[in-house]
Amino acid sequence: MYWKETMVQMVNIGVGSLIIILIISFFIGAVSSVQFAYNLSGSMVPMYFVGYVVKESLILELAPTVSCLILAGKVGSNLASELGTMRLTEQIDALEIMGVNTFSYLIGPKLAAAIIMIPILVTISATTGIVGGLFAGSLTGYVSQTDYMQGVLMGFLAKNIWVMITKATVFGFVLTSISCYQGFYAHGSAIEIGKASTRAVVLSCIMVLLSDFILTWLLLN
User: What are the C-alpha distances in Å from 57 to residues 65, 81, 117, 128, 207?
Assistant: First the structure.
C-alpha cells in the first residue's frame, strides 16, 4: 500500500513537473549565456568563460534554487490543497477511525517521493540550462559552440555536483514537509484551503532561500 502510494506521488511530483522545469531551465541557461557573453564582448576575457560561468551558476545556484522555488508553487500548493480538502471533508478522520496511520500513509510517501524525484528534476534542470546556453550563444553569434563547450568542460569539480544534489534533497524535504503540514492541519471552511495553500507556498519559498544560504555557507567552506 505504501509502495503504491509512493509510486503515485513520484509520478505526480516528478513527471508532472518535468515540462515546466525543462522550459524554465532552458530559458534560464539561454538568458544567462547571452547576458554574460554581452558583458564580455569587447573585453580581453576569452569567450569560453561564458560556458564555464553558465555551467557553474546553474549547478551551484540557479538549477537547485529556481527549480525548487517553482516546485514550491506547483507541488507545494497541490499537496496543501489535497490534504486540506481531505481534512475538511473528514477523509482523514475516517482513515484514523479505520486504524490507518495517517501521518505515514498520507505524508510519508509524499516526502519519500519528493526526496527521490526533486534531485532528479534539478539534475535535468542543470543539463537543460547548459544546453539552452549553448543554443542561445551560437544562435545570437556571441559565442561559438566550440568555445562554449570548452568552457563547460573546463575546471569540472565533482564536489559541485554533490553540492547541487544535497541542496535539492534538502529543499525537497523542506517544501514538502511545510506544504503537508499546512494542508494536514487546515481547519474551518473551504476558504481555509486557499489560505493553507498560500501559506504553504510562501513559507516554502522563504525556507528554501534560507536553507540555500545556510547550505552554501556550510558546503562551500
Answer: 11, 33, 22, 13, 21
CA dist 165 and 60 (Å) reads 10
The closest of 27, 96, 70 to 175, measured between CA atoms, is: 70
For the whole model, what pTM was predicted?
Answer: 0.90
Residue 103 CB burial class (10 angstroms; 0-12, 13-18, ≥19)? exposed
Which has the closest alpha carbon to 208: 178, 182, 186, 180?
Answer: 178
Q: Side chain identity at 128, as an amino acid letter? A: T
Q: What letter would DSSP give residue 105?
A: I
Give the amino acid at 71. L
List average pLDDT for each run of 10 residues in the chain, which is 221 residues long: 87 91 94 88 81 91 93 91 87 85 87 94 94 90 87 86 94 94 84 88 94 91 73
Please write the tens of the pLDDT for every residue from 121-135.
999 999 999 999 999
